[in-house]
Design goal:
Blueprint lengths: L3 E5 L6 E6 L6 E5 L10 H9 L3 E5 L18 H14 L5 E6 L1 H12 L4 E7 L4 H10 L1 H6 L1 H6 L4 H20 L8 H11 L4 H14 L13 E6 L10 H6 L4 E6 L6 H4 L1 H13 L4
Parallel strand pairs: 3-4, 3-5, 5-6, 6-7, 7-8
Antiparallel strand pairs: 1-2, 2-4
Length: 287
């Protein structure tokens, strides 16, 4: 597998992008979540490229080696999804297959609703649409308890300080304690530590949460028209499995696959199973 790296400005913000696969292949975009970076998809890229797909895994804005705009409002879902539209345009395509985990899933959901003509197929892993999460949380207090960390993120400078202490002890502990044993070995965490250490990265990453509260999306609330595959680790500590059905319900053509023993970190824990579902789903569609 030959992964290449480049920096592009699809919508005015410089993004670091990893890519592989044949230039003319169907485009697949892999969107990481919090607190990840493009390397969360490294195990997937070669396998998808071998199937003939052109695979793009960006560091989303604010993360790792991508540009980190200073304002909270710079991390609104409208802008985050516009970055992905820009990546599709940059690669000369009308549509792409889009995969997102965690916050990457939130971006993917919004993209598929606000820019429906740009998404060929949608795969989301352990993330509901933003409006589905909001409605569910109001009706199910247990989800509010699961989302306690989002409140911490709203405190100016506090979250960044807490996350940076003792060589990022808090995010390290969170990932290790909320995943199945052995999911994040030394090498896996090393890449994340390097990404978190990039100047301004922690503040920018936290600003995604702040923008979600202060600047909720004004568009992208309709049905999802693209064929959709929702994959869900049911031992997710952060998101209740009750979010699966209402997420499927907003789609015109969707299927959910549940993993009873997997956690929020399903892409890292079950890469072979996830890849098999993704490839089978992608191969069903014609260009």
């Amino acid at each position: 597998m030959n992964i290449t790296h480049q920096e592009i400005r699809p919508r005015g913000v410089r993004l670091h992008v990893a890519s592989c696969g044949p230039e003319g292949g169907p485009l697949v975009l892999l969107l990481h979540g919090f607190p990840e970076y493009w390397g969360a998809w490294e195990a997937y890229m070669g396998r998808l490229a071998d199937r003939g797909y052109r695979v793009i895994a960006p560091d989303q804005r604010g993360y790792n080696k991508s540009e980190k705009p200073p304002r909270v409002r710079d991390y609104r879902l409208e802008l985050l999804s516009a970055d992905i539209v820009g990546l599709i345009d940059h690669h000369g395509r009308e549509r792409a297959r889009v995969v997102g985990h965690d916050w990457g899933g939130a971006v993917a959901w919004h993209l598929a609703r606000a820019h429906a003509d740009r998404v060929r197929q949608l795969v989301v892993i352990n993330c509901p649409p933003a409006d589905v999460l909001q409605r569910f949380a109001f009706r199910h207090p247990i989800q509010l308890l699961r989302s306690w960390y989002m409140m911490l993120m709203q405190c100016p400078r506090l979250a960044e300080w807490a996350m940076s202490r003792r060589n990022f002890a808090l995010p390290r502990a969170s990932m290790l304690s909320s995943s199945n044993p052995g999911t994040f070995d030394g090498d896996g965490l090393a890449g994340h530590l390097a990404a978190w250490a990039q100047p301004g990265a922690l503040r920018a990453m936290v600003n995604w949460y702040r923008a979600g509260f202060r600047h909720p999306p004004k568009t992208g609330g309709g049905p999802v028209k693209a064929p959709t595959l929702l994959l869900w680790g049911e031992r997710d500590r952060f998101l209740d499995k009750g979010l699966v059905d209402p997420s499927v319900d907003i789609c015109l053509d969707a299927r959910a696959v549940r993993y009873p023993e997997a956690t929020h970190w399903l892409p890292h824990e079950e890469p072979e199973a996830v890849l098999a579902e993704m490839i089978g789903f992608f191969d069903q569609a014609t260009e």
